[in-house]
Amino acid sequence: MDKLLEIDGLTKKFGPISAVDNISFSVSRGEVLGFLGPNGAGKSTTMKMATGYLSPTAGKVSVCGYDVLHSPLEIKRRLGYLPEGAPLYGDMTPNSLLNFVCDIRQLNKEKRKMGYEHVVESLQLERVLHQPIETLSKGYKRRVGLAQAIIHDPEVLILDEPTDGLDPNQKHEVRQLLDRMSHSKAIVISTHILEEVDAVCSRAIIISQGKIVADQKPSMLERSSRFHNAVGIRIEATNSERCITLIENIPDVQLVEIVRNDEELVEIVVFPSNKKDILGSIRNSMDEDGLKVLEMYVERGRLEEVFRELTVGGLEVKNA
Amino acid sequence: MRNTWIICSRELTSYFISPVAYVFIVIFLALAGGLTFFFGNWLDRGQADLQVFFIYHPYLYLFLIPAVGMRLWAEERKSGSMEFLMTLPISTSQAVIGKFLAAWIFVGIALSLTFPIWLTVNFLGDPDNGVIVTAYVGSWLMAGGFLALSSSVSALTKNQVIAFVLAAVICFIFLMSGVELVQAFFRAWAPPRFVEAIAELSFLTNFGDLSQGVIDVRDILFFLSVIAVALFVNILIVEIKKSS
């Protein structure tokens, strides 16, 4: 595969504190890498080093085969970067800012026109093109930041929290945009929103205290959740005790948890031993008994829970 | 070269969209005029020259130039736009020189807006315009020296107040290194050669000749080298801060 971004043994120390501690990964063309971690885990610092804005204490970054220390300009030409918080020149208008970026990036007339029209249309900037950026809403600022990052159609895109501050519709639009661009680029996004990882990322890296604690496909991460293959069941309150007794008698059932219990409705989650598939056996035993179940579903696993376990608990995930 | 110019023109445009430029120009003109007329008694002197106009420039710049220079890097650092700027495909030196040039041109514009006093002196008498042009160029070069010093100080911090105060102190040292106060301090312990060398670094001494219309290449070279060295230090500071 075509590895566009390679990071090897990257370390950054601020005084005695290691903000980033020996991180290695690579991103190929066509991949969208979700970069996760609690605040202060080192996500932004890693991204800053990948773009050459910060120099690493140790380790190597290469973009499209160029080393960040030896050919920073070559790297910056091939890279689109949205810094954390999308800081831009507040006194400029989106129009003048985008033109400034095109000038600096030396886009020819044709590329410039195409890039400009593309970002204005796909990020819906038409309405605010001539307003000073400092007067724009958070969502618009973020989108102008995105626009300057993609206007030159870079091979590698590094976006620090690209959907922060956007409303649900705008988030959806941005995710679709990332999806459309993903086949020709290597994209790294950092985010706090775990559903986003599911929606756009082909791979997720979780870092905690400067170290990588997981590097997996989102679906594989879900599998390490204790909820993976657990079965959720809703039944009428009057039937609940009978139902729980039935289920507890099924082999492979390890634990039954009552998650909701009110006068009419009871909701339980059934955990299988070794995350086995127990939906079939549960259904059979319900059918045999003739017990009426209101709703039954299988959990894929909960990313949020995996995230919490990895970053504060002691869960370990086998890396891909 | 191309990128330097793009950055310079972006900066220059942004001076004039914000009120900062107009406030600065008005204050500069008011102070320059006020000092000339009230402290220098320009009209009462009865001489057709701009000596008393230029004589106050070093002191005017001492406070006004750090005010222009303080924001150059401190503001970028504070607002985070530095991250946007420095991840564009430009080199550090292009950014440093571009930003400096914009500020220098801006100060040049403010300085050139003092032209009514030049018209006045020509209307009232028959001055040596060669002297006046030399003095204007000298004044602009001196402003460039102060500005380059302020710019590199500004790269040290994200706090504009600190940048201003530090820059004013450094400009003061450079301005006054020829006067007895500073000289006496060095004479007490340093070898005479060194004391002389310090005196040579004085903006006041070097501007003195130019302001009287004496074109001494050494004075011009002096200011140009101060600018060059200060900007080089500026580039180093920006680079070093990257890895701190």
What's the gist of this structure?
Chain A is an alpha/beta fold and 320 residues long. Chain A has helices at residues 43-50, 72-78, 94-104, 109-122, 138-150, 168-181, 194-200, 218-223, 240-248, 279-289, 303-311; strands spanning 3-14, 17-28, 32-36, 58-63, 66-67, 79-82, 156-160, 186-190, 203-208, 211-216, 231-236, 253-261, 265-272, 295-298. Chain B is 81% helix and 0% strand.
List the keywords.
heterodimer; A: 320 residues; alpha/beta; Rossmann fold; Alpha-Beta Plaits; 2 domains; six-stranded mixed sheet; four-stranded antiparallel sheet; 14 strands; elongated; B: 244 residues; mainly alpha; 0% strand
What does this structure look like?
The complex is a heterodimer of chains A (320) and B (244). By secondary structure, chain A is of the alpha/beta class. Chain A has two domains: 3-223, 3-Layer(aba) Sandwich (Rossmann fold), CATH 3.40.50; 231-299, Alpha-Beta Plaits. Helix content of chain A is 34%, strand content 28%. Chain A contains eleven helices and 14 strands. Chain A has helices at 43-50, 72-78, 94-104, 109-122, 138-150, 168-181, 194-200, 218-223, 240-248, 279-289, 303-311; strands at residues 3-14, 17-28, 32-36, 58-63, 66-67, 79-82, 156-160, 186-190, 203-208, 211-216, 231-236, 253-261, 265-272, 295-298. In chain A, strands 6-7-8-3-9-10 form a six-stranded mixed sheet, sandwiched between helices. In chain A, strands 2-1-4-5 form a four-stranded antiparallel sheet, covered by helices on one side. A four-stranded antiparallel sheet of chain A has the order 12-13-11-14, covered by helices on one side. The mean pLDDT of chain A is 88. Chain B is mostly helical. Chain B has one domain (2-239). Chain B has helices at residues 2-17, 20-39, 42-45, 51-54, 57-69, 71-79, 81-86, 92-112, 115-124, 129-154, 160-176, 180-187, 192-200, 203-211, 217-242. In chain B, α10 (129-154) packs parallel to α15. The longest helix of chain B is centred in the middle third of the chain and has 26 residues, at 129-154. In chain B, 39% of the residues are buried. The mean pLDDT of chain B is 90. Classes of the chains: A alpha/beta (320), B mainly alpha (244). The interface between A and B is medium-sized, with 32 and 22 residues.
